[in-house]
Each structure stands twice: as C-alpha cells, then as structure tokens.
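Dear all,

This email documents one entry for the complex benchmark we are building for the journal club exercise. For each entry we list the sequence lines for every component of the assembly. Then comes the predicted three-dimensional structure of the complex as a token string, followed by one or two observations. Please use this as the template for your own entries, and keep the labels exactly as they appear.
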Amino acid sequence: MNKVESTQRAAPESMVPVGVVPTTIVQAAMSDFQACTTHAALENAKSRYLGKSGLITERLKGLSELTPEHKKVHGAEINRDKDSIEAAYKSRRGELETEALNAKLAAESIDVTLPGRGRGTGGIHPVIQTWQRCEEIFGSIGFDVADGPEIEADWYNFTALNNPPNHPARSMQDTFYVDMNGTDGLPLLLRTHTSPMQVRYAKMHADDLTNNGKPIKVIAPGRTYRVDSDATHSPMFHQIEGLWIDENISFADLKGVYTDFLRRFFETDALQVRFRPSYFPFTEPSAEIDMKFDSGPLKGRWLEISGSGQVHPSVVKNFGLDPERFIGFAFGSGLERLTMLKHGIGDLRLFFEGDLRFLKQFA
Amino acid sequence: MKFSESWLRSFCNPSMTTDELAHALTMAGLEVEEVKPAAPPFTKIVVGEIISREKHPNADRLSVCMVNVGSHSAAPLQIVCGAPNARAGIRIPCALVGAELPPDAEGKPFVIKQAKMRSVESNGMLCSSKELGISEASEGLLELPLDAPVGADIREYMKLNDAVFEVKLTPNKADCLSVYGVAREVHAITGASLAAAPAREVKVTLKDVLRAKVSAADLCGRFAGRIIRGVNAKADTPAWMRERLERAGQRSISALVDISNYVMLELGRPTHVFDLDKVHGSLDVRWAKKGETLKLLNGNTVELDEQVGVIADDSGVESLAGIMGGDSTAVNLETTKNVYVEAAFWHPAAIQGRSRRFNFSTDAGHRFERGVDWETIPQHIDYISALILEICGGEAGPIDDQTVSVPARNAVTLRIARAQKVIGVAVSADEMSAIFTRLGLRHTRDADKFTVTPPSYRFDIEIEEDLIEEIARIYGFDNIPALPPLARAAMRAEPTDRRSLHDLRGAIAAKDYFEVINYSFVDESWEKEIVGNVNPIRLLNPIASQMAVMRSSLIPGLLANVAHNLKHKAARVRVFELGKVFMRDSSAQDGKLGISGVSQPLMLGGVAWGGAASEQWGERERTVDFFDGKSDLQAVIPGLVCVKATHPLLHPGRSARITLNGQHAGWLGELHPRHLKAFDLDSAPIVFEVMASVAQLKKGVAVEVVAKTPLVRRDVALVVEQSVESDALIQSLHQAAGPVIRSIDVFDVYRGANLPPDRKSVAIRVLMQDTERTLEDSQIDATMKKLVVRAEEAFGATLRT
C-alpha cells in the first residue's frame, strides 16, 4: 500500500514546470519510474513524459516557436533527455520483469525434503551378499562358480570324498536322509557340504585339464544341511567350497590364497590367519583355519573359519585325474559364519526368519 | 578326551608353561578345547590335625577346636568351626590367618583374619572341599588321610597345582586316545624325552585258564585273557587313581571298574573284566546269530544279528564285542570273587557303525572303531592284572593269548620330492628323517625316498600322503609360508545369452522386493493342502514335524514371511527367494548334475502384499494387483507372456501361466482367497514363481537401422467383447498390418456407460514409419483401414464413435 501511495504522489505535473533545467526532468522521470511497482504504473508514468501529450513531447512541440539557434541547442538537449528517459524506462521495465519472475518462482517452491515418490527398492539377503562378495574375490583370480543338486547321492557326498559307509568320520556330520534310494540302493540325502560339487565339477572338467592344461579352479557356494539346530547351528546353512587342481598347487599355495581371501573379504591386512592340522577324509594334509581380528569386539580371539587341505589322492582319482600328475587344495567355509563375523551378528537364526526389520539393514 | 596335565607330564615333561603346551598340542592337530585349573587359586592352607574339640560356650552348632599346624605355629591354634564332622584326631585343610580362599563370583578372594566368633577367639578356618573350590558340594570338613603330613601345603599335598586338558581328537588320531599316546605326541612335537610306557610284572601262581575260541577271524584278530581268583571287589580305589580318574571326568565306581578305566585312559587299552563265576563253560568269539539278544551293562537289551560281533559262553551271548559287556557276567561289589580279565584286538571294520546302530556310544567302541594296538595286549593285561592284585588282592593265572589275524603293517614309501611339492616347502631329507624318528616311525632312506614302517598303534599311515601329512604337521604349519600361487591361468567369461543369478536377484530387488532364505523342508500340510502336492519327498529323520517334507514350491514359505512381518506391524511386505524345490520325477536320470528320480529346479518366487507403493504423501493408496506383479516380473523376464490358466494356489480368474518363447516358465497370480486364513492375511497378495533357468535367458541383440523418416501415430478405439484378450487382438493386428508398422499397443481399456455390458472399448496406439521415405496420407489411411477390417473380421470389433 505504501508503495502505491508513493507512486501516486511521485509525479504531480506541477512539480515539473515548463522551462526548468532539462536534467531535472530526467531525474524526475527516473525517480517516477523507480517508484512504479507494476507494469501498468510504469506505462502510465512513461506516457506522462513520452506520450502524445507528455512533457517531452510538449517540449518538442514548443521548439517550433524558438529561433533556429535556440532550436538547435534546445532540440539537442530535449532529444538527449528523451533518450535518457527511454533508457530509464527500459531498465525499470527489466527490473519489474525479473521481480515478477522471481515472485512467480517463489510461489512455486516446494519442500525438497519431502520423501521421493513411488516405490523404494528392496535388497539382497546378507548371506547372499557374502556369497556374491566371495564370487567376486575368487573370480578376480579366475575361479569359476558351480552349483549342483541339494538332494544328493551317498557316493558324491561321502564315498567319492574318501568317506565310505561306517567310517568314523561320517559321524562328524549328521545327515538328513530322504525317503528315496539312489541307483546304488543307498538312501538319497541332503548334501552335508558343497564338496560333492568338487567331484561333479572336476569330473566334468577332468579332460580339459588332462588334455588342454586348463586348471580346475572353482568355488561352489550353496545350501547345505545337517541335523543340528541352536543359536550357532542351523539345520540348513550355506557353504562355499573351493577347489584348485593343477600340476603344482601346494599347501603353501592354499595358505597364500585363503589368507589373501580373508584379508580381502574383511578388508584388513592386519587380520591374522593360522592353519592348524586337522582331519577330513577328503584332504591330506588337512587344516583347520582360524583368524584373529586386531580390532573390534572380537579382537584377540582365534575364530574358526574354515576347513581345508590338499585334496586326497583317492579323491583326485575319483575326479578322473591322475593323482601322480595333479595335486591341489580344497577348502570349505560357512557363508553365515563369514557374514556373522563381518557384521558382528550373534544369532544365526536371524538369517532364516525373513524379518524385514533385520533384512532392511543390509539394503 | 580329558586328562590332567600332571598325568601327561609324568610321561613327557617339556619345559613349557601350561598354555605353551596346550598351544603346541593344538598346532600339531590335537586341538585343546579347554584348559581348566584343577583347583582355583588360594594360599596358606595347610594340613591341620584337630587335637581337641569342645562345644562353643555360646552357640550350639559351633565347636572350638585346637588345631596342630606343625611348623606354622609353635602352639596349637584355637579355631571356631561350624562343621558337624569336626572331631579330635582327624586331619583337615586349615586356612591360616592371612590365607586367601578361592575368589567369589566377583573374583575377589576371601581373606582369613583373626576374629572373635560369639566372643571366642578364632585364628583360622577349617575347610571343606567346596571351600577349596575342588567340588560342587560337600558335607563338612574334607577329611584327609591320617598319614597326611601336618603343616604341609594343601596345594602340594593334594597336587592341586594341576590343570585339566580337554582335547578334541580327529577320527584319524586313534593313537592319541590315551594319556600315553598324547605324551608320545608331545615328545614328537617338543623333543622332550618320553618315559617308557608303564608296565608291571605279574607273578603267576595259578594254572587256571578259561578256554576261549576265536571263531570269526574277520571280527577278532587277537584274543587274550587271564583268570584272577580271590579278589576283594570292595577294596577302595587308591586316592592317586581316583584323583586322575576324576580329573579325566570319570566318576569312581568300584576298584575293578576304576582299574579297567584307568588302564584305558592311560594306555588306550580297553579291557573287560568278567565275573568268572558267572561265565558258563568256555568262551566263543563269533558273529551273533539273528534272534539272539543281550542285556547290556547299562540295562538296555539289544537285538543282535550276523553283523554284530559277540563274546558268548556255553549259555549264550555275554558281551557285545569291543563295545560293551553284558549284564549277567558283570562284576559287582557284593559277590564277585574271581574274575577273567580280557583284552582283544577287534578289527575296526567289524566295530564301525555298530554303536550308532544301537544308538549309544562307549569309550571302548570309540577306540576299537578307530583302531587299538594289538602288539601290546599281553603287556597291558599284565599291567591291569598287577594293579588288580595290588589293590584288590588275589592270585593270577597265566595269560591265554591267541593271535588269529592281525593287520599287516606294510612299509610306506615317501618320495622326498613329492613331499616337497605337495607341502610347497623344501623340507630337507634330514629334517624328514628327524621327524620320523621323533614320531617313532621306523624308516630307511634310499637316495630320494624313505621307506617307513608304521608301528602297530598307528592306524593312519597307509599311503604316501599320510607321511606327507606327518611331516607337515611336525614341521609346523606355521613354518610353511603363505605364498601367492605361481600357476598357469585361463580366462573365463560368462555367456552373453544368459543372465547371472545375481543379476536376477538385483532385478527383482530393484522392484522393491527383499530377499529371504527359507528352509527347504516344510510342514507336510503346506505341500498337501496349499501347493496340492500329495506325495512330497519326505525326510527320514526330520528335526521337527514342521520341517518334515521337501518343498515343491517357494510360495508357502514366502507367505509365512508375510505373516511373520504382519505380526510385527509391517503394513506392506514384498519378499522374494531364489531357491531349489524338490519333486519326485521318474524321468530324472543320474547325470553330471542330476539325481535319478528327483527333479530339483532352482526357482525364483515372490510375494507382494499390501499397497502397490508404500503409504506416502504424494501418491494415492492402492492395493497391489495382478498387473503390478506382472510389471515386476517383466523386470526379470522382459519377454514374458501371460496365458490364462488355473493353479490350486491362485485365484482362478486372476492367474496366469508364464511362458517365454513358448517355454513354460512358471506362474503369476493373486493368492486364492481360501489360503488367506492359513497365513492370517486379510487381503490377497500377488505371488509368482518362475524357473530361474528360463528367467536367466537373455534375448540376443538384433540391430535395426534407426530411420530418419518421420514417425506417424494414429489412435483407434475398438469395441470388442469382454472376453477378447488383449494379446490375441494385438497379435492379430500385427499379422494384418504391413511392414510400416513399428508398434501396436493398448493404451486404455474402457468399460461402462455408452457401452453394452458385454463389451469393452480398447484404445490402441499405432506407430508407423517407412524407413525409406515419408509415409503418405493414403498409405497411412490404407494401413489403418486394414487393421480395422481385421479387428472386425476376427473379433467382431466396431469402431467406437
């Protein structure tokens, strides 16, 4: 309101008498234009100076009454004033346009902090994220990935891995059996480890190694089953089995590869890794692998992480390979265990409850 | 296996601390799971003798004792005591003033001070075994033998500065199932000297022999025994033996049983002591006959057959060979006078699996399954006999010893270069030889190889790798470097016509689904009632009835996930799983990746329940429907086709079979309302399940020229019967139209006012383009005309006006 009033007061014609010093009329126009806050007011003010009966127009008309010398001098002055007033008008008009645009944009502004529209995204299960990470890490030095049947034949799960029926080592793993027999007459079972894939994959690739010199280098991640259930044991869990067979893959190489894997997986070179003698029917020498963090809540404790060893010659023979010529290592680790150590998760059962409050934390 | 450190060190005593010794064992493959002190810390507790005991003048239950503590005090100490068995003449542990008793739960020791108890001065404390922290409960003061030296430190006197090792042995370490066996190992690891195995001579004073016959050489390789007459079965087990047994976790039972257990723990020799007077006639070692039964020592009666070995007498089976004795010939405290001590070599293969079959395990069976030394049988019978004679008295007869079929110990060859190659370190031949020597492996070297003959107590050395393992183990895994392999490499690449499983996961997760992992075994009712699978594959040994059969569908598990999250107030749940399902399938064959009779395809399943999007400020709320599900699934299988079909899981009017290039891929639909209740749902979720192998297929790329001519759009609304399927209409139009068609798509479907109730209007967008030149109006009109005519002819369509 104040601005409008001042606009109305700003240009009384009586304040700009005819014949005053020409610069004053420019100043008056500029001050008039400046006082205008709308396009309409600005147009009105402009016509008061430059319109058909505006002050400048009137003055130009008055020139005809002057002498040629005066006409020349005054004419030039009036035209200069006219140019100045026109420039002032254009400038003010530009300003008003900018103001109007700014006002419009201000009115259109939104709350950018409101949530984005539409669906969110889901997420991959933490154990599967570990699985993917293992594939990436082992893939970086050329390991292939394989998977096979979960209902498995006795031969692949045990006997081919040098663990014949009644062997005391069979009691190391409590096995689920199903109500069907394999073609060998023995009951089919739920694989107790992903090691049967060692045999299946190696059989499929044995000729390629023997004849074409392509190393057998594979990991087999997947579901496995054992008769066991509490906070640290699940009747179903995931294992990742690794196998590297070639002419010269030694126990020292096993130590190198697996140590490197753990340090990459846990993203710290400060991780300590130790191998200690153990026993598995399908490897010899066999090693249990322990690791120790140098920081974090689990720091300073040796944590069992994997079983491993040099593949037993009987198993290499079952691969369809000559154990005299080919040696190598195998290892098996629990994906849940790796995940729990990575994230400091204490209860294995969380992985199998499908609780979104848990799963969303890994998205 | 549990045993005390002092017992172990009595045979091999390296100069290492307890922790160092435990670590050394662990790093040699004998994992020490726990080391526990035999007694908690305490100080200044000595052997005291109660000289006199008076009743406390001011308290009925207390007594005032004068206690001789030898050199610790010139005069006897006056000590107030509350124990009921406090009396003159007994020797007891006495805590002196200043003594620290075992720490309490907070770890603070209790300090004994001079005190007045009910105004009588007390200068110490008399202790029970519980107060010393060596037993859980006790009745009064711990009464020590009357010859306990007064004033001696209790820790020294009772050998309490000891630790109990618990070792987890792997199945191959049969030779370490005894304290002496572990001592042999300590010698091999540390080089500390090894004492000779404990042995005693027995004076044979009787001529009696119990006749025994070995009828099954494939069961029993050597059988030996001796009669001992006139034993006192009630004799006390000596304190030293009881202490070692207790620290090994064995409760003392009776002298004869304790002695047998002691020899088993010390030497790894299981023996059996029969009550001779209950044996009828002579013994026969044979396979059992079908129909025979035996009541075991533990009271169970087992049914036998030809797979199980027994020791029988003239009246029947008396013992389960190598596993457990029978009840009828067991020794007892009251009547046993004469015994027969038996030790045998049972072939591991004849024992393996038998305990498991009867569902129990014994220490003897555990050892015989893995292998027990056959050579030392007579020495060990002498040792146990000597202990019996010493502790229970009696007179011994000669050992009757028959060897029928002991294993051969074949020499094993080790090539030095092979060992170095497998281990990856150039362990020298001399070092290998030294390792063999420390392990007690007789060996000779011939240039580049060793010939090694394993001793009879080793059952794990048959091939070269067994020796390589021994070298690596004793050389020390820690001393083998962790090397990055130097090996030949081959490149790998994934085929471009298949997507990886992780890509599938990523695609569906991007559609707002969270991945879950459900058990592969489910409740039988899920299979039968929800999935409609009447004959699921059953587990023979499920851990719970709700995990009894193998699933043939991922969907019920996913619905249970929805129910679980609903319970936790989730308003919208979208989950998926990538997992195998399992069906009987007579066409399935054994193969590279197959198992005869079972098909186990990998499936991708998903369930979406609740809002199409989560409740939010900027979008109208709408429940997820079939077409949301279809769009989600198209992210995984872009070229999918829905064919109307019914499935027991799904709403019959809102379900589709999914195909890709005519190949069956799976199912999509709204859950059948009859299943809502089972999962406590109030509205129907959209569910899908497709074969991962089909979803993985990727369309090959066929590049088309990008035309520069203008694209023309024409829309047309066709009124057709409600039953006309959009896919069929569009396909038909495609066939009718000429080559200028770029695409034909439905962009709106209208039902309602202005249309008869059995009709719907389908709005279609047609995009046309000639790649060579600009289309003329006449061409465009002619094409549109063709489409309309086709729609009229094939579907009775009319143009909507």
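Observations: Chain B has 20 helices and 42 strands. Chain B touches chain A through 102 residues (CB under 8 Å).
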